[in-house]
Amino acid sequence: MLNSSVMHPLTGPAPGIMVWGGIEYHSRTPLVRIDGTLNSQRSISEVLEPVVLPYLQGLATAIFHQDSVRPHVERIVQKFFVNHQIGLLSWPARSPDFSPIENMWSFIAQLLTQITPPAATPDQLWQRVEASWSVVPLEHIQSLFESMPRHVAVVISIKGGYSGY
């Protein structure tokens, strides 16, 4: 499963940036910096075609997971997945507790807070996010996926409430 999301990193003296990235049990995608507003057409032309499609083609089998933000669920994006025979994981709306990538972004955010002084420009923040993304150990990514059954069990036991993950 390739789990992807858009991140709005921490802001400090510099404005925040928007970044797309994906993780899979054995690897991670390159990051994509999203300037401006992400819409469905830009999602296809800047993320899906140049990054996701070649990445998925390099995997033996894959199911793609993304959150349910508007640019990801619009008809043109859904048609892209059908046309390229990309399997999608069904996902309940507003369910970040189940998404390993959200915990990956939290880890990246922790790494960013350890760098002082804070990034002064969006370009400096981008460099730091890219560097942090690349140094996350593969074992950490794998542990995010391995923790999923435990997360699901907790959410079931609390009848769908917030699990704290």
UniProtKB/TrEMBL annotation:
It comes from the Eukaryota. Residues 17-110 form the Tc1-like transposase DDE domain. GO terms for molecular function: nucleic acid binding. Pfam families: DDE_3. This is Transposable element Tcb1 transposase. It comes from Trichonephila clavipes (Golden silk orbweaver).
